[in-house]
Amino acid sequence: MNAILLIGGGGHCKAAIDVLEATAAWRIAGIVERRDCGISEVMGYKVLGFDEDLCSLRKHYAFALVTCGQIKTPKLRMRLFDALKALNFTLPSVVSPRAHVARSATLGEGTIVMHAAHVGPGVRIGANTIVNTRALIEHDAVVGSHCHVATAAIVNGAATVGDRCLIGSSVVCREGVAIGADCIVGMGTRVLKSLPDSTLFIGAHVT
Ligand code: JB2
Question: Which residue's alpha carbon is at the smallest distance from atom 13 of ligand 1?
Answer without folding.
Answer: 8
